[in-house]
Design goal:
The chain is mainly alpha-helical. It has ten helices and no strands.
Length: 209
C-alpha cells in the first residue's frame, strides 16, 4: 500500500519558485525599494547593481526584475518615492496670493531640503543624475512630467513652462551649492536669509511680464 495518497484536486497550487505569495508582495516590493534607495544613496547609480539591491533586501535578484525590470526602472521607482514630497510644490504655488508665490515656492522647496528624512534621498538622486546620463534622463523625465508641468499649469502668463523651468533652475542651483557642494558661507547661512534673497528672483521668473 502506498504511503502517499493520490492527489484529490483540492490541494493548493504550488507557488511559483522565487515569487512571494500575494499577501507578501507589497511588503517585498517596499523592502526592495528601501534597499534600492540606500544602495543608490551610498554607491551612486553606476556602482549600484540589481544583485546588490537584491542582497540588501534579502531577496533573489529575479524578484527585483519581476517587480521593477531593469536597474534604470528600479532607480526611477526609487526616485519617484523619494521625490514624492516635492510633488506638492504646485499646491504651494496655487495656495495664496500671486504676489507671494515666489516666497511660498522657495520656502516649500528648501523645507524639503532642510528635512533630513527627505534630504538624504534627494542628495542620492542629484549626485546620481550629475554623474550618469541614464540617471540624469530619469531625473529629467520625473521633474518635467510631474513637477514643472504642474507648476507651469498654475502660471497664467506667456511661456509658462520656460518660466517654471528657470524658477526651478534657480532653486536647484542654490540647493546644489548649499547641500551638495556645501560652499561657504551659503552652506551655513540662516535659511530665512537665503529665502529672503532667492524668493524675489523666483517671483520674478514666475510672474513678471
Amino acid at each position: 500500500m502506498s504511503e502517499n495518497p493520490a492527489p484529490t484536486g483540492n490541494e493548493p497550487a504550488a507557488r511559483r519558485r522565487g515569487r512571494p505569495p500575494r499577501t507578501e508582495s507589497a511588503d517585498t516590493r517596499d523592502r526592495i525599494l528601501a534597499a534600492a534607495r540606500e544602495e543608490f544613496s551610498e554607491r551612486g547609480y553606476e556602482k549600484t547593481s540589481v544583485r546588490g539591491i537584491a542582497k540588501a533586501a534579502g531577496v533573489d535578484s529575479a524578484l527585483v526584475h519581476h517587480y521593477f525590470g531593469t536597474k534604470e526602472q528600479v532607480f526611477e521607482a526609487a526616485v519617484a518615492v523619494a521625490f514624492a514630497p516635492a510633488l506638492d510644490a504646485p499646491v504651494a504655488v496655487a495656495d495664496g496670493p500671486l504676489d507671494a508665490v515666489g516666497e511660498r515656492l522657495t520656502r516649500f522647496v528648501f523645507g524639503v531640503w532642510e528635512n533630513p528624512r527627505t534630504r538624504t534621498p534627494l542628495l542620492a538622486i542629484v549626485r546620481s543624475a550629475v554623474n550618469n546620463d541614464t540617471a540624469a534622463a530619469v531625473f529629467r523625465r520625473l521633474v518635467a512630467a510631474q513637477l514643472l508641468r504642474r507648476i507651469a499649469a498654475q502660471v497664467d502668463l506667456p511661456d509658462p513652462e520656460l518660466r517654471a523651468e528657470v524658477a526651478a533652475a534657480q532653486l536647484v542651483g542654490v540647493a546644489m551649492m548649499r547641500y551638495v557642494i556645501k560652499l561657504e558661507p551659503l552652506a551655513s547661512a540662516d535659511l530665512e536669509q537665503i529665502i529672503a534673497r532667492v524668493a524675489p528672483v523666483v517671483q520674478h521668473h514666475l510672474t513678471d511680464r
